[in-house]
């Protein structure tokens, strides 16, 4: 029999020092990281920044849209106010025109009442009706104008007669042939009058008299001397 040389069997593991674990026997490998990969914190920060930029862009769009809508609303409000004022002005104008047309038709009646009053014929029931009509016309804004002695104004007077008078210094209404009527500032009929102007040469005579008086004062040394 041949002697077998002591040795390791194929499946026999090498001896491990006492107190050592299997993990110590195995080589440790460090966890592998992909080259160029960003850390988790940097990725989260990038996402947050992208969201902030998107929200800021949306906020700018909303602010722009709000500004445009506010401008449109202000323009519409101004147009509405102008429309209301225009409608109110037109309404007042239409009312004044309607009242003026109505009262214009009544002017001949008022003239007849005035002539009857001048001749003393405004008596009895006719007087009461006439005065009621005049009161209603006055409430509707009708005003009578035209008086003797007032200066002639071609914008409110219509001269039907013309003469010269020595006692006037300008063209003057010396007789009211037909009174004028107005509503507010609107004249619906001018006053028909007779006018008188200063006599030709009257101003020249007065000027000569004034110059003669001045010459006399100069010659005598003035009224306080002598």
TrEMBL record:
Pfam families noted in UniProt: GrpE
Source organism: Streptomyces tabacisoli
Family to which the UniProt record says this protein belongs: Belongs to the GrpE family.
Protein name as catalogued: Protein GrpE
Family annotation (PROSITE patterns): GRPE
GO MF term set: adenyl-nucleotide exchange factor activity; protein homodimerization activity; protein-folding chaperone binding; unfolded protein binding
UniProt-annotated location(s): Cytoplasm
This protein's GO CC annotations: cytoplasm
This protein's record includes keyword Coiled coil: yes
Gene behind this protein: grpE
A Gene Ontology biological process term: protein folding
């Amino acid at each position: 029999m041949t002697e077998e040389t002591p040795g390791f069997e194929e499946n026999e593991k090498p001896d491990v020092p006492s107190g050592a674990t299997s993990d110590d026997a195995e080589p440790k490998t460090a966890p592998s990281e992909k080259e160029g990969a960003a850390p988790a914190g940097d990725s989260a920060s990038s996402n947050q920044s992208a969201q902030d930029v998107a929200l800021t862009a949306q906020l700018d769009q909303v602010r722009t849209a709000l500004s445009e809508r506010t401008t449109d609303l202000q323009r519409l409000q101004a147009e509405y106010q102008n429309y209301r004022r225009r409608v109110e002005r037109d309404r007042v104008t239409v009312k004044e025109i309607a009242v003026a047309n109505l009262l214009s038709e009544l002017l001949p009646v008022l003239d007849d009442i005035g002539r009857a009053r001048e001749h003393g014929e405004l008596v009895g029931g006719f007087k009461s009706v006439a005065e009621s009509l005049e009161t209603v016309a006055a409430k509707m804004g009708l005003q009578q104008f035209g008086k003797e002695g007032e200066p002639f104004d071609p914008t409110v007077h219509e001269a039907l007669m013309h003469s010269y008078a020595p006692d006037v210094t300008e063209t003057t209404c010396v007789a009211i042939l037909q009174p004028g009527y107005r509503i507010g500032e609107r004249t619906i009929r001018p006053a028909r009058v007779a006018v008188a102007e200063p006599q030709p040469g009257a101003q020249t005579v007065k000027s000569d008299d004034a110059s003669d008086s001045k010459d006399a004062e100069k010659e005598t040394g003035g009224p306080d001397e002598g």
